[in-house]
Amino acid sequence: DQQVKQNSPSLSVQEGRISILNCDYTNSMFDYFLWYKKYPAEGPTFLISISSIKDKNEDGRFTVFLNKSAKHLSLHIVPSQPGDSAVYFCAARYNNAGNMLTFGGGTRLMVKP
Amino acid sequence: DTAVSQTPKYLVTQMGNDKSIKCEQNLGHDTMYWYKQDSKKFLKIMFSYNNKELIINETVPNRFSPKSPDKAHLNLHINSLELGDSAVYFCASMGGYYNSPLHFGNGTRLTVT
Fold it and tell me: Contact A98/B31, CB-based, under 8 Å?
């Protein structure tokens, strides 16, 4: 029972263009969302987050959009760079004991020079 | 000055053996986690400890036993290893605020033969 889903296992984008990674969730109790980036043989590293009271959060080239009614969020990377090539995980949290994160299955982004 | 460190990075062992993975964080965080990334690349919560106390224990076989000697350490002991235990295990820690991200170690790749 996947509560957080990333339906695109992979995405290929040309350098300089926009990358859009999507994430859907089913649990309406989720109120905090995060994106992580993961390189091979390394742990996930935090990228950007958004609270459910907002619909947009921006940090440099990275912007996360949240559509609560659709239970959908997306990560925009503009402009995409070859160093952005990695697996991106969407994660969600609600106020439970332990504040654990529930992760999506990941999307592999390939940015071509 | 690695924030969350795990040892060993690779662990190859035979079925039936008992093994341990160590995790240490120097971030001063109170909460630590173990996540498992299976062959389908999903990151799933296994355990959560807050200040040495077990908070979350997801549906994990009793063969897995976490131990937290102090709040900076969370070790994972696995008894009677099975082929299905082969995976990458990630340790993580989290600060005291609800909107704090998790900080992950670089993972331990366990291969059971």
Answer: yes
